[in-house]
Design a protein that fits this description.
Layout: H1 2-46, H2 49-95, H3 97-110, H4 115-126, H5 129-140, H6 152-171, H7 179-204, H8 209-233
Helix pairs in contact: 1-2, 1-6, 1-7, 1-8, 2-3, 2-5, 2-6, 3-4, 3-5, 7-8
Length: 239
């Protein structure tokens, strides 16, 4: 029993870290991509450091609040869905235990269990209501508790904070250098960060780090081109 408890803790810890990683990537990359396009567009159109910083910072905080709100509401929706499925499964375990037991049996038969061993596994699982419920949620419905390890509020804080940090990448250089010198540095820094983030994300999932890095960098490049084209279209005439 002690071994199983450690295994469950390890699994929950991994799920929690995976969720944290996902939220950091989600907020950070969105902040970089969106603000990069805005900053390059405004810089090209106005050539004014003041206006670039004003637009960039306004976009940064609007973006972070929006991302945090989306993270909060989507997580709450996931939690509510999960809780409704928990209630439904518990009701079925109480009211139609034979059918639910048969579902556990079918799940483990598909995993390769049979005969006496299958019966022992099913008996063991169904002897503990919590384990029975967890097995149904995970193996039948494919659901993990979205609030495991982090509440909706803290997920929103993490996404919003990551969006702020990501947004500062294309803005930072404009605090210190004139617009003309800042544009190529902001573009290069943003694309480099996006490549590193995309490569790391893909390395942790598919293992194709180069493809993941290039894909995210190209997305940032597309945002930069779009912003630049809008800036050219609305470029203020020279005095």
């Amino acid at each position: 029993m002690q071994k199983n408890a450690k295994s469950d803790d390890g699994e929950h810890h991994t799920i929690g870290l995976g969720r944290i990683f996902r939220n950091v990537i989600l907020g950070g990359q969105d902040g970089v991509v969106n603000v990069l396009g805005i900053v390059l567009g405004v810089a090209t159109a106005t050539n004014s450091t003041y206006i670039v910083l004003l637009a960039g910072l306004a976009a940064t905080f609007a973006e972070s609040i929006s991302m945090a709100a989306v993270a909060y509401t989507s997580t709450r929706a996931e939690i509510e869905h999960y809780e409704s499925e928990v209630r439904r499964e518990l009701k079925e375990i109480d009211e139609i235990p034979d059918r639910e037991r048969k579902e556990i049996e079918d799940i483990y038969r598909e995993k390769g269990f049979s005969g006496k061993l299958l019966k022992q596994v099913v008996d063991k699982i169904c002897s503990n209501r919590k384990v029975w419920l967890g097995t149904m949620m995970r193996d039948e419905l494919g659901l993990e508790n979205p609030s495991e390890g982090m509440s909706a509020f803290w997920q929103a804080v993490l996404v919003g904070g990551s969006a702020v940090v990501g947004s500062l990448v294309p803005i930072a250089t404009f605090f210190f250098l004139p617009v003309g010198a800042s544009i190529p540095i902001a573009l290069a820094a943003s694309l480099a960060v996006l490549f590193v983030v995309g490569a790391y994300k893909s390395r942790m999932t598919s293992g194709k780090w180069l493809k993941g890095g290039l894909e995210l960098m190209l997305i940032g490049g597309a945002a930069a081109v779009a912003g630049w084209l809008v800036g050219v279209l609305f470029q203020a005439p020279a005095a």
